[in-house]
Amino acid sequence: MLHLWGEVDMSAEPALGAWLAATLASREPVVVDLSAVPFIDLRGVRTLTTVAAASGADMALRGGPVVLGLVLDAVGDVSDRITVEPSRHEELR
Amino acid sequence: MTFTADWTGERFAHEAFVYDDPEQLRERLVPFVNETLDAGQPLVVVVPPETADVLGGALGPRVDDLFLFEDAHRWWRGDAHRTLAAYTSAMAALVAAGRPWRLVGEPVWLEDEHGTAWSRLESACNESFADLPYYSLCLHDRRRFGAATLERIERTHPTVWSAGGVVASDRYVAPASYLRSDELPWHDLPPDASAISVTSPRQARAHVAATASAAVDGVDTVCLVASELATNALVSAPACTVATWRHGHWFVLEVRDDGPGFDATLAGYVPPLPSQPSGRGLWLVRQLVEELTVSSGPSGTVARAYVRARRH
After folding, report:
1. Is B124:B90 a contact under the CB 8 Å cutoff?
2. Strand order, beta sheet including B159-162
3. Is B86 helix (H, G, I), strand (E, B) or coil?
4. Which residue in chain A has the smallest CA separation from B274?
5. Tens of pLDDT along chain A (93 residues)?
6. What is the dihedral of CA B153, B157, B159, B162, to 10 degrees?
7. How many Å apart are CA B193 and CA B244, to the nearest integer?
8. Which one of B117, B136, B208, B227 has the fewest beta carbons within 10 angstroms of its own beta carbon?
9. How far is CA B136 from CA B21, B51, B83, B103, in A?
């Protein structure tokens, strides 16, 4: 499992993309824990989906801020390789 | 005999047909569909059950040859942008193949509260889809719609079916004019606006979080909007100004930069195609706010997002 911390926006994306690409080179399925990410923008989500698509690795997103769902909805057409695990809040309902 | 005038299958064609009764519908729809299938062109059909019955009865087993056959009532996502995104997604393979295809769509949602937003997207399509080999026949049952909606249909479709042929719509207006005429008018920045200069999206989010929390529900959404607009601005300029204020029942968020600007004619009205590397930010913002106006030129760009404010 990969853990991300902090806000993901244009200042973090180049480093995040390079790091993810190197980490996902093995093509093995990966869980990305976003529960310590208070904010992620469109570019951040695109970085995740683009790297997953390019590496051929299946990626599950766990946790994450409220805006993650808004951004994923808007991105549309997210690769089949990306799954979003239900938040704890949804599991409890 | 051709039922699509002189369409050569190279560029986007966008026709509105307003029918009065099922017989008129059949006379236009069935030849169009047969012509499409005879040509071996993929056909997407999104219509309500009454129209599906007319089509199914006439096509018989050929109905299996349709690329997609969906109920328009279920197709509507309750929101114009999501609905257009659903079309774009469903047709992604056709766009990628680059061969001529057609759509029969019947937007039964034009009287919905988001119907005017849909009409803006119909207008924008005339420019954003211009180079696609795509014929869109938009059906409209006159009995469903009021005069204002019927006028919108004629203003957003360059051609209409009339008296047995495809003719230019007299009331058609270019997308730039249509969109600007339907958007909120610009007003002066009020002296009590809360404005700061920022050099990172994070600063923009912090400023908006501080000023929006008392004014709107869904501060997270407004912060995301501020962040996306600031990101766009900071790609083209080292700093930008973020301002917020109340205007009537709106909470307004403005991001202004003095970068080189861009062609904002269709800003955010275009669904992102997979091949487009940019342009998604404004598309996202339009889905998150009630209204967005963008003005851009060589001396800079101003974007204003409008969210409903809580009552005082």
Report:
1. no
2. B68-71, B43-47, B101-105, B134-141, B13-19, B159-162, B165-168
3. helix
4. A77
5. 899 999 999 999 889 999 988 888 777 888 999 999 999 999 999 888 888 888 888 899 999 999 998 888 777 666 677 888 865 444 443
6. -10
7. 6
8. B117
9. 21, 16, 15, 5
Closest CA to A41 of A6, A82, A81: A6
Residue A68 Cα, gap to closest chain B Cα (Å): 10
CA distance B29 to B215: 50
Q: Do B201 and A9 touch (CB under 8 A)?
A: yes
Q: How far is CA B98 from CA B119, B133, B134, B274, in A?
A: 26, 7, 9, 14
Amino acid at B94: L
Contacts of residue B21, Cβ cutoff 8 Å, sequence gap at least 6: none
Query: To the nearest 5 percent, what fractions of chain A are helix, strand and coil?
Result: 45, 20, 30
Partner residue opposite B228 with nearest CB, options A7, A42, A66: A42
> Beta strand A82-84 with A59-62: parallel, antiparallel or unpaired?
parallel
Residue pair A46/A74 in contact (Cβ under 8 Å)? The answer is: no
**Residue B148 neighbours by CB distance under 10 Å:** 11
* CA nearest neighbour of B278 among B221, B225, B232: B232
Cα dihedral B172, B176, B182, B185 sign: negative
The span from the first CA to the last CA of chain A, in angstroms, equals 26
H-state helical runs in B79-212: 80-90, 92-97, 115-128, 147-156, 175-182, 201-212
Chain B residues with beta carbon closer than 8 angstroms to that of A75 = 280, 284
Contacts of B263 (CB under 8 A, 6+ apart): B296
Distance from CA of B219 to the nearest CA of A (A): 10
Q: What is the pLDDT of residues B249-304, one digit of tens each?
A: 999 999 999 999 999 989 999 877 666 666 789 999 999 999 999 999 999 999 99
| Spatial distance between the Cα atoms of B130 and B3, rounded to a whole number of angstroms | 21
